[in-house]
Amino acid sequence: MSGQSAERKLLGLGQRLIACRRREDVVEVLAKELPLLFAVARWRLWLTGLDGVLLPLDTEGEAVPKSRSVEPARLAQLAGADRPLVEAEGSPGRCWLPLPSHDRPAGLLLLERVEAFDARTLARLDDLARFLGPAIEQVETRSRLEQQNITDEVSGLYNARHFRALVEYEMERARRYGQDLSIIFFDLDHFKKVNNRYGHLVGSRVLQEIGHFLRTHTRRVNLACRYGGDEFMLLLPSASKVGALTLAEKLRKELAEHAIDFGGSGPLRITASFGVAAFPADARTPERLIQLADRAMYRVKAAGRDGVAGC
């Protein structure tokens, strides 16, 4: 590839990267262009999280918890370098490319190929980094803003508006494929007393802990939301009513046993009342499904709280 041709292709790559809106778009562009422009056989991308820790990205654009082969301190050192770094021993075709952004590294790109990286290729990789760093920063900023628009800031779960949209989408999908879908609606018992006795800061701490509890005690496919106040919902795609009632009872027991440390004299324990409704058995619209689960929950409240009921 001639010098001018390579420069034109690199400029085109930079333009495509800047146009990316999601992590998946960045991955797709790199997967297509890196082998063509740099004869790369394998590559891996790390992104800098809000806490400054570098997280590896898989081919679907999702960050995975940690690298299996490189220590975090070493990754941070590589990402903070001011130029591409070729491994000195045994791997002439292995290059680490730091990706700068405005105030800190945006990430780190590892490139592997058969032949060594010569000076001209390293200079072009340096140019690539100047495109890729800002592109990643732009994608991550947009992602954080979008996440803020759909997330409840106290619990970290989906907010009610986004949850209703998810219910509509999943119900239409269930209708199309002849599947079940269920909702669990629950309300914390005596939450007002918690606020009155310990104050609203502790109340907020309880809501945060409920968000954490749901994220760690339910499957990823089950979508959790803080619906308002101390009300929460779970959307269970493909779950029958029997399955939803079983899960609600499991969550009820686990929540009652869950200790919430709020810095007081001892851990706080709280219970909840659960209502369940299912599509298509109970309701055929999102509004009706939520309404029936809510009514079932209030029947539990009226019967003494800390229980589960179907509509």
TrEMBL record:
> What is the annotated signal peptide range for this record?
none
Q: Which GO terms describe its biological process?
A: cell adhesion involved in single-species biofilm formation; negative regulation of bacterial-type flagellum-dependent cell motility
GO cellular component terms, alphabetically, are:
plasma membrane
What PROSITE patterns does the database record attribute to this sequence?
GGDEF
**Sample GO molecular function, one term:** diguanylate cyclase activity
InterPro entries on file: Diguanylate_Cyclase, GGDEF_dom, Nucleotide_cyclase, Rev_trsase/Diguanyl_cyclase
Give EC number(s), comma-separated. 2.7.7.65
Listed Pfam families: GGDEF
Q: Which residues form the GGDEF domain?
A: 179-311
Q: Which domain of life is it from?
A: Bacteria
UniProt catalytic activity = 2 GTP = 3',3'-c-di-GMP + 2 diphosphate
> What name does the UniProt record give this protein?
diguanylate cyclase
